[in-house]
């Protein structure tokens, strides 16, 4: 029996199936928009409605895209569609390309009008109650046609989105260098606006709301609301309670709405970022207690991409942030 032919060691390696040039020839931007909408909607029918297209047109575009990338992007089922492994790997690249397309549209619009566009903002708890609302109000007065989209989440979610271009700016307590992955850190630049501190607060109708002097020892038996252990303020929380240790009766939460509801309906006491505490005290919802021992726990500011100039709309928003930060930081 003849021996099988040995592989030709001198044969050239197989050419890769994809290259930048081949993808540029085959892919269409509309296909990326359709892919992203189907992923977000979870069904072809819902995506068709959002894009004002027919379902057959959506299906055809997806089939063409799957043919071009060399595999299925979604698994079709009775309850809709879910991304395949290839679809999950394709998604961040599609999102990044669409984000760049949005920036191109904003650049063109800003060149023509100067006061239109969209700013996508990621926010942390320390900014959502005071700094961000004031900045949006200032922006609205200066450029009323700029649309601001706000996403709330932790650093671990927001900074990767910023690095990929899906967010224009992240606003809140600035993290330490170790909190941001190395590759992301090199692409990001932060600007501090003011130092944030914690304050002890109660509901406006709390029996202690009108006290002029209070010691921490008088409050230890109460039910407390404190920031979560993964928050930027946690080291300051531990330092504040010191040798007494954390209160036995406590809720750990950084949800402003949850904390306000708990304080309004009970005798609880809470630790809250100073800017938020002062904002809600001015609105008559909370009272800030005169308890000493709480200093600054970190800087509040904003983070942007270091390797890309902001759009005109984002630059207007950053100017509004700086003005709001100056106002909130005055007197601290």
From TrEMBL:
This is LysR substrate-binding domain-containing protein. The lineage of its organism: Bacteria, Pseudomonadati, Pseudomonadota, Betaproteobacteria, Burkholderiales. The keyword Chloroplast does not apply. The keyword Metal-binding does not apply. InterPro entries: HTH-type_LysR_regulators, LysR_HTH_N, LysR_subst-bd, WH-like_DNA-bd_sf, WH_DNA-bd_sf. Keywords: DNA-binding, Transcription, Transcription regulation. Belongs to the LysR transcriptional regulatory family. SUPFAM superfamilies: Periplasmic binding protein-like II, Winged helix' DNA-binding domain. It comes from the Bacteria. It holds the Pfam family HTH_1. Residues 27-84 form the HTH lysR-type domain.
């Amino acid at each position: 029996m003849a021996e099988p032919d040995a592989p030709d060691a001198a044969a050239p390696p197989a050419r890769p199936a994809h290259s930048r040039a081949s993808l540029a020839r085959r892919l269409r931007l509309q296909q990326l928009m359709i892919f992203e909408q189907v992923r977000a909607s979870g069904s072809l029918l819902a995506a068709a409605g959002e894009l004002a297209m027919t379902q057959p047109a959506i299906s055809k575009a997806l089939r063409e895209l799957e043919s071009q990338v060399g595999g299925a992007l979604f698994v079709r089922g009775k309850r809709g569609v879910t991304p395949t492994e290839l679809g999950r790997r394709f998604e961040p690249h599609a999102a990044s390309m669409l984000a760049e397309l949005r920036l191109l549209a904003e650049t063109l619009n800003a060149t023509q009008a100067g006061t239109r566009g969209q700013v996508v903002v990621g926010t942390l708890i320390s900014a959502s109650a005071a700094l961000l609302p004031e900045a949006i109000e200032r922006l609205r007065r200066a450029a009323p046609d700029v649309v601001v989209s706000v996403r709330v989440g932790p650093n671990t979610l927001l900074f990767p989105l910023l690095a990929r271009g899906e967010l224009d700016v992240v606003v809140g307590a600035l993290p330490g260098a170790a909190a941001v992955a190395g590759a992301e850190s090199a692409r990001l630049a932060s600007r501090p606006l003011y130092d944030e501190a914690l304050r002890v607060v109660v509901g406006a109708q709390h029996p202690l709301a009108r006290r002029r002097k209070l010691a921490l020892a008088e409050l230890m038996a109460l039910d407390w609301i404190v920031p979560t252990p993964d928050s930027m303020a946690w080291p300051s929380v531990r330092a504040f309670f010191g040798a007494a240790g954390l209160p036995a009766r406590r809720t750990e939460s950084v949800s402003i709405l949850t904390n306000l509801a708990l304080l309004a309906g009970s005798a609880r006491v809470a630790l809250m970022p100073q800017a938020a505490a002062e904002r809600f005290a001015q609105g008559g919802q909370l009272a800030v207690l005169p308890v000493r021992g709480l200093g600054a726990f970190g800087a509040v500011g904003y983070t942007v991409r270091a390797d890309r100039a902001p759009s005109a709309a984002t630059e207007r928003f950053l100017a509004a942030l700086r003005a709001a930060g100056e106002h909130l930081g005055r007197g601290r």
